[in-house]
Amino acid sequence: MPSVTENGVVASSSDGASVDYEEAYLFPERTKNANSLSPEQAFAHMVKAMLGTGLLSLPLAFKHAGLWLGLVLMVILCGICLYCMRLVVYAAHYICQRNGRDVIDYANVMRSAIESGPTWISIHGYFFKQLLNISMFCTQLGFCCVYFVFMADNIQSFFDVNTVIHLPKSVWMVLLLIPILSICSIRHLNKLAPFAFIANCLYLSAVCILLYFFFTHLKPSSDFPAIGEIKNIPLYFGTVLFAFEGVAVVWYKNLVYDVFILLALNKFMN
């Protein structure tokens, strides 16, 4: 029979039962309210957060690293990112259960983890919390800048080709502030779930069109370098990590009332 020991470790005579009991202990079902997200709504937001312009920039990453070296490094980086993301989620729920909290953010996960460590580092929990906040702010600011440039580029190209309206890119960026700020003013994610679903469908349709053109104009792999130049490897890492921009978004999972279904969808997504 599984049980939780004094230090929070799950003990069981069966590994499978231990894992099931651990998930039941760490991911209890929450009370549903007017602003709660269903697992399906949270999944739509998760897909929208993880699939962005970073995915479209992956060909540039392979240009920097080479075809085969880029493929090997891609598998390694994806495995590391996936493992670390799941580790953070489980650590957050463990800290919530240990401290009697319902939700917790990234920074406080870092602080609680540091304060649970050895004495020489546990006294620096607040410093690491603020360091994480600053790092996430800089990361998200850079991602948002890329998104504005990406949207302005595409809108400018469309209007320059199909209309008589010719505006500089900086003007399009300013005009984009109006709808972007309006959307960001919506506080409840369940109201945005239908738009996230529509955006996912449009995005996946665009990716399918791109893949069609890629495969119909595919060149032999021998035309591409197997290993790129060493000096371009940092650019490869930066481009690939940009594809994981959804890692640092606000935790929609904290608003889900049935976490088990979301976990199942997340495993399918993985």
UniProtKB/TrEMBL annotation:
InterPro entries found in the cross-reference section: AA_transpt_TM (IPR013057)
Keyword Transport: no
Keyword line: Membrane, Transmembrane, Transmembrane helix
GO molecular-function term, one example from the UniProt record: L-amino acid transmembrane transporter activity
Domain Amino acid transporter transmembrane stretches: 38-250
Cellular location(s): Membrane
The protein's name: Aa_trans domain-containing protein
Originating organism: Onchocerca flexuosa
